[in-house]
Amino acid sequence: MCLKINVSGMHLGVSRRAFLVGISAAGVSGLAGCSDPENDGPTVGVDGTIAGGVTVPMYGHNPARTGAIPDRTGPTDTVTAEWNFDDTDGYVQRSPAVVDDVVYAGCTDNYLYALDAAEGTKLWTFEAGGSVVSSPAVVDGTVYIGGGSGAVYAVGADDGAGKWATITGEPVFSSPAVVDGTVYVGTGNRPDAGRVLALDAETGDEQWAFETGTQVTSSPAVVDDTVFVGCHDNNVYALDAASGDQRWTFETGGTVISSPAVHDGTVYVGSHDNSVYALAQSDGTEQWSFETDGQVEASPAVADGTVYVGSSDSEVYALDAASGTEQWTNRRESMRSSPTVVDGTVYVTSQFDLSKGGCWAIDAGSGETLWTHNTDAMRASPAVVNGAVYVASKFPSGGNYSMITMLTAEE
């Protein structure tokens, strides 16, 4: 029997614990959640295309993790905070997803939150049993998240009811990519344990597991039946999406936390060796590399022939996608979040220090700063939807926790 709860216009604020039944390494069955057929959100096809709704359904916007959102607009003039949601006992480390006028975000207080995108009010919460530091992926009426407790969860997007949870054995800080009925995600937080997993999106059953031997906090990109992911063993891996077999690997000079962005036959990725790499999608051959003065944890965004990426040297770089030639830089503060590119504007967040940070907008062509907004410290990428920017705070200033802020153009 399926209990269907309509949350339209309601603010339940109800915590729903996933009931794990028959726990095994392959997966577990839990509550059989139901989604509203009129509010199923986007569908992601085998080619990575997204259909349905005005959305930012997952980290990097799409399974290719390009960070570019076509046919969308965002504020280019001075902004103001429309609302700020701080009714939590933790903070958000990863980017929110925004689908069908709902903001989804995981929090270090062990909860996944669903908020009304226009008002910032709480619709529902889901308790994950451990810190949630994975960005949600929202596809076909289901929210997929990873938990520090060592599980991947599937939760009903309309009511927060648990559908299934798969026990991984290692924490999941990687953000899921969901393509053609499969969830791809990395696991691990120890030097001696890490995997890339493919799970059935409907049941959570394990389809394959690729052992890396060390942790995978990079979020997989999935393009043309291939999974691309970075690893703490300094490598970028390309895996067959159907079998998990290794197609190629490329070794950098440092840890790869950056998530690959795949565009037009090239894989763009950063490394702790201070470099940004462009690799051939087909075989991993290095096309070019660009050296910064700091570690590159951020994931590149790719739009209109340009790669945008931040470095811990406090610079945002615009690089020619074909050659790696520097086009401009924009200096702010420690840059560990990944840019979002919308309609000729680059949106970025930064961390000034452990408590202060900001969000700002840059003209994609010239590198000129369009506006800045000071906030609590941030390391999560902004989500831009319907002329608004949704940003998450990593560390709160003062005594209150700050979670999500909606920025809109100042009237």
Summarize the structure.
This protein is an all-beta fold. The chain is built from no helices and 37 strands. A hairpin with a 2-residue loop joins strand 16 and strand 17.
**Class derived from helix and strand content:** mainly beta
Please tell me how large the radius of gyration is: 19 Å
**Which fold name fills CATH's third level, the topology of the domain at 9-60 and 97-220?**
Lipocalin
Number of helices: 0
Q: Level of helix content?
A: under 10%
Low-confidence stretches: 1-41, 43-54
The CATH architecture of the domain at 9-60 and 97-220 comes to: Beta Barrel
The strand line-up of the biggest sheet is 1-10-9-8-7
**First-to-last CA distance:** 49 Å
Beta-strand fraction estimate: over 45%
Q: Mean pLDDT across all residues, rounded?
A: 83
Keywords for this entry:
single chain, 411 residues, mainly beta, Lipocalin, 5-stranded antiparallel β-sheet, 37 strands, globular
Task: Report on the architecture of this protein.
The model is unreliable at 1-41 and 43-54 (pLDDT under 50). The protein has no helices and 37 strands. Strands 1-10-9-8-7 form a five-stranded mixed sheet, with no helix packed on it. A five-stranded antiparallel sheet has the order 2-14-13-12-11, with no helix packed on it. It has 411 residues and is mostly beta strands. The protein has strands at 15-17, 28-29, 43-44, 50-51, 68-69, 79-85, 97-99, 102-106, 111-116, 122-127, 137-139, 142-147, 151-156, 162-167, 177-179, 182-190, 193-200, 206-211, 221-223, 226-230, 235-240, 246-251, 261-263, 266-270, 275-280, 286-291, 301-303, 306-310, 315-320, 326-331, 340-342, 345-351, 356-363, 369-376, 383-385, 388-392, 404-409. The chain has a domain at 9-60 and 97-220: Lipocalin (Beta Barrel), CATH 2.40.128.
